[in-house]
Fold this protein.
Amino acid sequence: MKLLQILKQGKVQLGVATELGILDMKEAGEKFKESLPANLQELILEKDGLTKVKNITNRAIKEGANELFFTKEEIHFAPVVTNPEKIICVGLNYIDHAKEAQMDVPTSPVLFSKFNNALSAHLDNIPIPHGAVQMDYEAELIVVIGKETKNVSKEDALSYVFGYSVGNDISARDLQFRSGQWLLGKSLDGFAPVGPYVVTSDEVDPNNLNIECRINGEIRQKGNTRDMIFNCATLVSYISQYMTLKPGDIIFTGTPDGVILGYQKEQQVWLKSGDEMVVSIDTLGELKNVLK
């Protein structure tokens, strides 16, 4: 299923993308007198939540309940996950990106974090913080954890994944490299847009997805997840050896080459206010944001 979160009257609620449009699950529950998960986190946590949502979606389509469906232009997207306990990011997870950043190819995953303040949604404007000059993009596949994950094997790791989404690990490089820790340049307000959808894991092969980033229409990044140094199963397993992943946690799995940081210094033209960033991934959709 292709799920999303809608911001409506100040509240985040669950939606489903269908061939008829975006189905508002709150209104569907009221119409069919069914108790449904209010948001994605409740859906992940509820044992039969996904089955309930599938059944109501099929019923709404079958009965032609057109009043429950909206176009993408009629809704306000929220981040696909709004309150994860952890946002874990993986650095240098594509060989060509490690080389362009002039850093050693890692022998184990390079982990860092973002905080919830960094979350933003499809079509949100991203504020450029005061003093930041070297604004950059990083197109990434997002893993959404579906159940408590501790000490899992690589073979079992993907069974703990609820779904996958599109992300942009926006970075202020001048702040990122101000010290040996990357946090300042990575977890600024709005610097972790995710969305527009979460596609459930039964519909996605995370090991063969094309990733693309366009800036003002120009292709800057073009890669495939098969080129990851550490694939999704390896990342989930590795992280789970050291910290318990909880339902709703998200993992930014790393970016292919093509970021501005990798250009020769004389060719580095950093992003500025008004620049449009579009990240697209096969089967998952297209995430669009503008810097302001």
Remarks:
- Residues 2-77 form one domain.
